[in-house]
Amino acid sequence: MRSSLETFDLDTGEATVLLRTDRLIEAPNWSPDGRFLVVNGEGRLFRVELDAPELSEIDTGFARDCNNDHGISPDGTMLVISDGTRTGQSCIYTLPIGGGEPRQVTEKTPSYWHGWSPDGRTLAMCAQRDGSYGIVTIPVDGGEETRLTDAQGHADGPDYSPDGEWIWFNSSRGGTMQLWRVRSDGSVMEQMTEDDRVNWFPHPSPKGDTVLYVAYEHGVEGHPRDKDVELRLLDLTERSIRTLLPIFGGQGSINVPCWHPDGRRFAFVRYART
């Protein structure tokens, strides 16, 4: 089997397989009611019900090139996708949670969605503007963009803290890819990890006390698939880091918000060695 969609329970320290498939699937989102997951694969989006796990395709209209940067609105009524069908490069759209015709949000490309503000009003994305990739926000209905990072290094993977005060992201602005956070108004920026690993895709838990992320081995460039990585947890109270699970994965494993609403579980994808 190529892909294994799984959940990890922080209380037991155990991973549970929900679905195995020969398809390449990626980037699970957990619905706000905890009943289903959304993943992508082969340019499509799929819904996976927890009580009867199987891949059920979601109607995304003309968008047939959906990548792994997708998510669900805080109120559970909308999907956001990143798709290049019409624009040639990734563009952000929203559509109803049950499927339908996408509505374009970003005019500029490439734009890759990663976070939705808790109040539902703003989207955070990784976007290439003026020759560099940085953290950019935009109103959910489109409009003027706000860039929160400068051109120092590559910045990617923004995700909001549950109070909406911070946006977490990863950046190489310090030399190696580490975790950072910036105030949602861009006023303060802080580096949050500094070690010998290559750290990507931070996801604050629903309680805001921990941050899940993927750690590549030292020297890895970018965020490739099919690597030996670790899923790690940064505890903000104790300022400590622990390894939860070593997996064969990386790109596609936890690119987007993947926490269960109870904050005790998260979803991920691991891949088979070929």
From TrEMBL:
Lineage top rank: taxon: Bacteria
Annotated family: Belongs to the TolB family.
Name this polypeptide is given: Transporter
Originating organism: Rubellimicrobium roseum
